[in-house]
Structures are given as structure tokens and as C-alpha cells.
Amino acid sequence: MMNDFRNRSKDHYSHEAARQKRYLLSEQSKSDLLCYRDDRILLHYLIDTYSLWISKKEQIDRVKEMEAKLLKADQECALLLERTNWGLQYFAQWTDDPFIKDSDPFSVEHKTL
User: Fold this and answer.
1) What is d(CA 76, CA 74) in angstroms, rounded to the nearest whole number?
2) 63: domain range?
3) Is the Cα torsion angle 92, 93, 98, 99 positive or negative in sign?
4) Are 83 and 109 in contact (CB under 8 A)?
5) Tens-digit pLDDT profile for the chain (113 aa)?
6) Is position 26 within any domain?
């Protein structure tokens, strides 16, 4: 009975557990990014709605600067969502083909994100 445990490959289970953990972290990241995206949509709405009431030039310049930063954040968030979705799709392919090695692109992409 004891030999059964010694002959099992621990390596396969640790790789699978690590991939499962990366998948769950990617799902959480995607959820966070979607929430962040919704918050940015609200900020765009607030800027559009209340910028009409701003009359001082320095305040208008400040709002324009905030809008530029917000647009850059929009682009970065969209890129992160795209990369996260790619990783989740890759993980789905991995579940269909468990012989993909642990040094797969999903691992590299997950570390980068």
C-alpha cells in the first residue's frame, strides 16, 4: 500500500494545481478589470456632465488633463482584458490537451500580467 504513494508522479499534480491557481487568479483579475472598466465609464460620464459647469480656465485645463489620463487608462485596461481573455482561452485549450508542458505561454503571460 505504501508503494502506491511512492510510485505516483507528484510532478503532474503540482503542475495541475499551479495551473488551476493561475486560472482562478486570471478569473479574479478579469473580474477586477471589468469592475475597473465600469468605474471608468462612470468617470467619463461625470466629466462629460459636470465639465459644462466649469468656468475657470485652470479648472478646464485640469479636467482635460484628467480626461487624457483616463483615455490612456481605458487603452491599458482594454489591453489587459484582451491578454487576460487570451490566457483563459489558452487554459481552456490546455484542459483539452493535458500534455502541454508547464513552461507554456499561459505561464509566461500570467507572470507578465
Assistant:
1) 6
2) 31-96
3) negative
4) yes
5) 444 444 444 555 555 667 778 888 889 999 999 999 999 999 999 988 887 788 888 888 988 999 999 999 999 999 999 999 988 887 777 766 666 655 456 666 666 76
6) no
Whether the pTM exceeds 0.70: the reply is no
Q: Is residue 72 assigned to a domain?
A: yes
HEC readout, 50-105: HHHHCCCHHHHHHHHHHHHHHHHHHHHHHHHHHHHHHHHHHHHHHHHCCCCCCCCH
Half-sphere exposure of 18 (CA within 13 A, CB side): 15
Task: Give 26's Cβ-side CA count (13 Å radius).
Answer: 27
Number of domains in the chain: 1
Query: Over the Cα atoms of the chain, what is R_g?
Result: 22
